Amino acid sequence: MLNHNKLWTKEYIFLLIESFFLYIGFMVFMPTLPARIIELGGSQVSASLSVGLFSIVALFTRAISGSWNDRIGSKILILVGLLILIISTFSFYFSSIVFVLLVIRLLQGAGWGISTTSIATGVSTLVPPAKMGEGIGFYGLTTALGMSIAPILAILIINMFNFHFLITFALVFLCANLILLSQIKLKKKKPLHHTTPALLEKSAVLPAFLCLLMAIPLGGIQTFMMVYGNEIHVSHTWIYFLGQALTILISRFFAGRLYDVKGHRFVIIPGILSMALGLIVLSMSWNAPSLFVAALIFGLGYGMTQPALQALAVERAAPDKIGAANGTFLSGMDLGMAIGSFGLSLIATYSNYSFMYLSSITALIVLALTYWFTIGKSRVVH
């Protein structure tokens, strides 16, 4: 029996581990696949497509799988998403043609969208309403840590071994999730009423848009940090992701509880300010220590803001639309990352990466203003 009054159940803990393993197994290709494509003779455009294609496909699969989570349950969809990811990742072994790599990336995007949306929905259904900030916060910790640690591991593996070893590394984490999934029991929720599945859950559109704005500078960081290191003559750019992971971890010791006790504005506003300050320091960085300081500041803000926005999306949704709400919210994350990867690269092309990071603060300014004049003035979220 699932205990809906207790947060730290076996199912909840296993889903957090699932999420962390999933982000590690998938995100190791973010900084390495573009380099692999260029190594195989692909253009810079093709390399950029490897970043954006999965986001576009994930955007649509999230919208569809979100509604299906509410109808057939999360566990079966987590399994479907994992199998797609494992098969597509395994296909990298035999792919030395750029076009084939991009097609595989499309398939990965489908598996990514289905599995991440389904895990998020499973987590949301296990969290007691009174602990929503804390429960979603720790889920946000696993995704953010995975997103921060994966580039460190990817860079180290590529430098020490090769791309095929990286594929094996990713498959170990993805296959481990199949074992974890077999030990998880998730109840299937019956819809309260029969409706046609919608691509977007209306109640989650605003939090998703806020997440999109937050993800724009993050997309620039995840995609171009290695290139920025070349610009400022820093080879050990993995130190940035280490600093970001540290303060994301620290934020979990207070941000979720603060959300539940004080309300979202006491978490989101300081989080936005911290991210903006981190980008300013990042734009002025000249060595590894200054990159590390920028990462500490930005990571703290991201660790506070992202889980709080997702908790908002879940709280505003009807009980039978939690899956759709998670799908809509995470679509905002994917779209923001894609805009950050492509849009910010245009700024860097006509100036430099330092100015690119500084200009990305504009997205956070729009985020702060939109949040404050819509829901930021009130502690009540419904």
Automatic annotation (TrEMBL):
Coiled coil: none
Compartments, as annotated in UniProt: Cell membrane
Regions crossing the membrane: 12-33, 45-64, 76-104, 110-129, 136-157, 163-184, 204-225, 237-255, 267-286, 292-314, 326-348, 354-373
GO cellular component: plasma membrane
Domain Major facilitator superfamily (MFS) profile: 11-379
One Pfam assignment: MFS_1
Keyword Transport attributed: yes
GO molecular function, one term: transmembrane transporter activity
PROSITE patterns (UniProt xref): MFS
Entry membrane topology: Multi-pass membrane protein
Keywords: Membrane, Transmembrane, Transmembrane helix, Transport
Protein name as it appears in the record: MFS transporter
Source species: Listeria fleischmannii
